[in-house]
Amino acid sequence: MKAAVSSVIENQLQNNEFLGDVLEGLGRKRKTLPCKYLYDEVGSRLFEEICDSQDYYLTRNEADIFTTYRDEIAQKFGPETLLIEPGAGNCEKVEELLDAMDSPRGYCPIDISPEILLEAEKRIKKSLPEVQVWSEVGDFSQSEVWNKLIHVSSRKKVIFFPGSTIGNFEPLEAERLLKLFASNLGAGDGLLIGTDLVKDSVILERAYNDSDHVTERFNLNLLQRINVELGANFDLSLFAHRAFYHPLRQRVEMHLVCLKNHSISIADTCIDFTEGETIHTENSHKYSIAGFKSLLTRSGFESVCFWQDPAKTYVIHYAQAI
Ligand SMILES: C[S@@+](CC[C@H](N)C(=O)[O-])C[C@H]1O[C@@H](n2cnc3c(N)ncnc32)[C@H](O)[C@@H]1O
């Protein structure tokens, strides 16, 4: 009974934070919503579909790098390393790596989306029964979730951050996040991180406007989530998905464009939308190799090496905490 009551309170607290963030973002002159809310259960499943799509080259090319260099990467870690994966999602990329590692100490996936994480934990425990798994549901950009992992002792830690998730953060936020990662590592511990390279805008825009319209559904699902969890009354047919490359900011921006003047309400707050205005829902920053190395240096890491796919579209960096 006690556990049921505390989970009700936890849900209410999370909903309060969600509501606060939504009202704050939609109350701005340029409306915005934090991209972490794209990942409810439906959003996480849609993201899996995006990763499988032909147009979204990032996942495929990153997976190629892991398959080609997994032994070399695992050797960099050394034996008895604890792998921590913030934003692990379905934890698909880690199994190959854990399998190549010498006596891994264990694996700690962290994700904001509980359903997908718990399903992945079950799968890993079955396929790699010798690996200990401690998963945590929470926001990896907040220290609270990292504090929950303090009890897991290890000879060496490596933070594994694939999927170009770092690209979702504006450069200053990315620096703050990498500093938070560094503060949870000791000198010589590692960071294995995937970043998408700056490239032709046609390829980039195709990746975020896939021909099966899965990214469109992923983007619109955020409004549906707000309707379901916060009792809002968005009419999804009054918004359209738009994703484009912004060359000066070196990022793909994802927006929901309002198609007609109208108002909606969320928890007694009325919000007006005018035709043509947008809700900015996600950024995906692209980096050059040198640009990302410099971000690593500013954030408390020393770049050790990097690997690329044959077409040089994507990079996996390995760095050590100083
Ligand atoms: C771009 S996906 C990458 C998933 C997976 N790591 C991969 O490489 O395919 C981002 C993942 O991070 C999670 N996520 C996004 N923001 C988060 C946050 N602030 N805290 C925890 N998880 C977050 C999402 O639920 C999602 O699973």
From TrEMBL:
EC number of this enzyme: 2.1.1.44
Pfam families: Methyltransf_33
Keyword Methyltransferase: yes
GO annotation (BP), single: methylation
Keyword Transferase in annotation: yes
Gene3D superfamilies the UniProt entry points to: Vaccinia Virus protein VP39 (3.40.50.150)
GO molecular function annotations of the record: L-histidine N(alpha)-methyltransferase activity
Domain of life of the organism encoding this protein: Bacteria
Family matches, as InterPro entries: EgtD (IPR035094), EgtD_Methyltrsf_superfamily (IPR051128), MeTrfase_dom (IPR019257), MeTrfase_EgtD-like (IPR017804), SAM-dependent_MTases_sf (IPR029063)
Domain named Histidine-specific methyltransferase SAM-dependent: residues: 21-320
Keywords attached to this entry: Methyltransferase, Transferase
Class of the enzyme per the UniProt entry, highest EC level: transferase
Protein name: L-histidine N(Alpha)-methyltransferase
Organism the protein comes from: Microbulbifer variabilis
Lineage of source species: Bacteria, Pseudomonadati, Pseudomonadota, Gammaproteobacteria, Cellvibrionales
